[in-house]
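Reopening: structure tokens for the benzoic acid complex, inputs below.
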Amino acid sequence: MNHLGETSMALRLGDEAPNFQADTSEGKIDFHEYLGQSWGILFSHPKDYTPVCTTELGYVAKIKPEFEKRNVKVIALSVDPVDSHKGWISDINETQNTNVNYPIIADADKKVSNLYDMIHPNASETTTVRSVFVIGPDKKVKLTLTYPASTGRNFDELLRVIDSLQLTSQFSVATPANWKDGEDTIIVPSVSDDDAKKKFPKGFRTIKPYLRYTPQPNK
Ligand code: BEZ
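Re-run output (same inputs, fresh job):
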């Protein structure tokens, strides 16, 4: 149940990421228009002018070129108003030595927070938890994460996941535990050995019939 006593369905992987219009620190946006053909990361934080959030939004600004390289647009959200976001951005830039140059949604009426089930009342009735939604160019939800207020997220992990998602959307591979860009990948079980020979000209090694490694196909 949300703060209005309405039940909201959590978004699941493969669901369409709902569209919305919202005020942001960079003006009004239509979410789907903002994303265009890009991948997207929509992430919420509990509150402006709080320490962990300050480090998180600063870090995202720092690695924004890495997101851009991967054709990913980032957008943050909290239930604070635009004026608060604008003032806080100055603090983030001052303390984190960054230039926050992506929009922060001002979701004072909690419209988007409820749409994306970002308020977990048993954690906090009034503020969003640390939610992350990775959205593909098809506007489908590819990954969700929920972190508590006390734990800052690992945004390098999001880059790693994006690398995996983009690779696995193009080739019949999956990525093993702790995989990083450039390392060997796993051939999905639905591909037969005969087909694997054609699809993966660099070859593959079979540990078990269901566990076959091949060099990263796009390297
Ligand atoms: C923080 O960002 O530091 C924070 C925000 C809400 C609750 C606890 C910590």
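The chain has a mean pLDDT of 96. Helices lie at 31-35, 51-62, 64-69, 82-96, 111-115, 155-168, 193-199. Marking as resolved unless the reporter disagrees.
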